[in-house]
Structure formats: structure tokens, C-alpha cells
Q: What sequence folds into this?
């Protein structure tokens, strides 16, 4: 049976909002913390490898505490590799790369392209239009993010090419959202799937790391900010475990709303850490954002259901 979801499938959309907000907040904080990593001179490849390795170790510990095992079936391994590459490795590499050249708030704003790209790709793949209410919800959320963008934008000198490169992140996330919704193993645990995904990407990146960086070049820049890298690894483990936990509570378009909350939390953290000003438009954007998410997930209905 096709896993594609409609609004009539109530159980699929049962209470995903809190999880989406939490995941978005964690992701946004991680993007802001990643700015410290790039400032320390750590390469994008080294930073991504360390993040995935630590996240994998944290998740494996949780897997052990839950007395669950890591599935190594062929179907699961295929899912680990493809989903991890599209949804984790590519976005992380792009993020660490472009953060060397653009402000942290701008990176988080780029994440908001993910819901629209996901919605567009979904409609093409499924050969049908998005429900009007869901489309309105996505556009309202995007409007809220626009308020944040205009209020947070400052005059910065950087090559616009880095914005185009950064756009690769939401494109990859959108494809991963759709793939995850279609190919997620039904008999897999959320923690086990997250653990396998992390370790598959560690093994994928290890040869590249050994060819490009020596051991001192990999370890020494991390010594001064080890606590930040440890925090990023822990937060990554939490966000990925939650991502797979809510897999059966929303679909690819609904989950893509994480990008909106990642943007808001990332800008708030960047404002506090990097002294970027916070305006009232940010608080207005948060309110608009909640309306958009509620419309997308069906918590607010534009029309009353007809009595049968």
C-alpha cells in the first residue's frame, strides 16, 4: 500500500506539531553553533565527520539502554545510506562550507526553502496538486520567515555564489523528506534507524577524511572548542532520533515545516551569540509561523467539515 498521506488519514497527522517545533529549534541552534566551528578553522569535511560520529555514538548508547538492536538487513542498509547522504551529509557539508562566507542567520533563512521545494516535488512525483489549505499554510509560514529575513538582514560583503551553493542544502533536504516518506522501513525502530544512518555516513566519509586531512590537522583545531562539537553531536543525535520517531505522524510536506522553526531558533541564537539585533518583527513572525504550521497539519481548518 502506498505510504502517501491525505488529510483523511487522521492518525498519520496525530499531534506532530510539538515534535516539529522541537526538531526545528534543535536544528537552528546547531546551525548557529556551527559558525563557531568554521571560525576555528575546522574544515567542512572534518566538522561533518565529527558531528556524525558523535551523534552515532550517542544514539548507539541510547539503543543499548533501550535493549534494541541495529538492523543490518539489506533494505535497511540501503535506506541508511541514501537517506543519510541526502538528509544529513550533503546539508551538513554545505552548511559548514558556506558558513565560512555568509552570516549564520542567512544560512537558517535558506532552510525555509525546503517546505516549498518539498511541496513542489511531491506534487510532481504524485501527479496531483497540493491541498489548498496545506499550500496556504506553507505560504503563510514562508511569509513569517520573510519578516524575519527583512528585519535581520544587514549589509554584508560576500560573493552571491555562496547563496546559490547554500541553496543546495534545502534542495537536498526536500529530496530526503520525500524519500524518507516513501522508503522508511516499517519494521524499524526510530533509534535504530537513526543510529544506522549516522554510522553509514561515518563509513562513507572516513576514506575521504583520511585522504584529505592528517590526524593532527583533524584533531588539533577541535581541542579548543571540543565542548561545542560535543554539544553539536548530542543535539544532532536528539534531532535525528526525533525525526524518525515522528515519521508515522506526518508526511514529507508536513515534516518540511521543521525548516521554519530552524530559521527562527537559528536567528534568535545568532542574535544572542553574534550580537545581531532582534526586532519586533521576529516575534510577529513566530506568531505567523504557528498559524502556518497549524494550517498545514490540519489543526486549524479554513472550512468547517460538512455533516454527513
A:
Amino acid at each position: 500500500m502506498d505510504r502517501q498521506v491525505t488529510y483523511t488519514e487522521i492518525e498519520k497527522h496525530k499531534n506532530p506539531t510539538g515534535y516539529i517545533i522541537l526538531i526545528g529549534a534543535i536544528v537552528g541552534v546547531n546551525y548557529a553553533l556551527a559558525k563557531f566551528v568554521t571560525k576555528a578553522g575546522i574544515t567542512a569535511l572534518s566538522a561533518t565527520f565529527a558531528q556524525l560520529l558523535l551523534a552515532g555514538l550517542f544514539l548507539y548508547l541510547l539503543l543499548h539502554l533501550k535493549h534494541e538492536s541495529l538492523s543490518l538487513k539489506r533494505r535497511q542498509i540501503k535506506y541508511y545510506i541514501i537517506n543519510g547522504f541526502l538528509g544529513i551529509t550533503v546539508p551538513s557539508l554545505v552548511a559548514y562550507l558556506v558558513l565560512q562566507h555568509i552570516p549564520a542567520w542567512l544560512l537558517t533563512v535558506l532552510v525555509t526553502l525546503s517546505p516549498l521545494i518539498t511541496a513542489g516535488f511531491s506534487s510532481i512525483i504524485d501527479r496531483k496538486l497540493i491541498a489548498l489549505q496545506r499550500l496556504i499554510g506553507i505560504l503563510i509560514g514562508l511569509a513569517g520567515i520573510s519578516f524575519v529575513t527583512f528585519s535581520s538582514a544587514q549589509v554584508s560583503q560576500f560573493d552571491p555564489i555562496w547563496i546559490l551553493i547554500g541553496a543546495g542544502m534545502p534542495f537536498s533536504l526536500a529530496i530526503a523528506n520525500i524519500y524518507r516518506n516513501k522508503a522508511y522501513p516499517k519494521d524499524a525502530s526510530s533509534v535504530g534507524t537513526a543510529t544506522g544512518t549516522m554510522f553509514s555516513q561515518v563509513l562513507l566519509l572516513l576514506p575521504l577524511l583520511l585522504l584529505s586531512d592528517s590526524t593532527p590537522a583533524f584533531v588539533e583545531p577541535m581541542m579548543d572548542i571540543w565542548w561545542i562539537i560535543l554539544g553539536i553531536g548530542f543535539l544532532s543525535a536528539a534531532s535525528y532520533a526525533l525525526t524518525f520517531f515522528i515519521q508515522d505522524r506526518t508526511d514529507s510536506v508536513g515534516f518540511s515545516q521543521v525548516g521554519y522553526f530552524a530559521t527562527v531558533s537559528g536567528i534568535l541564537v545568532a542574535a544572542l551569540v553574534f550580537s545581531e539585533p532582534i526586532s519586533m518583527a521576529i516575534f510577529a513572525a513566530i506568531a505567523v509561523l504557528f498559524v502556518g504550521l497549524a494550517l498545514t497539519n490540519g489543526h486549524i481548518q479554513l472550512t468547517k467539515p460538512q455533516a454527513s
In short: Confidence is low (pLDDT under 50) at residues 1-13. The radius of gyration is 19 Å. The chain has 14 helices and no strands. The longest helix spans residues 74-98.
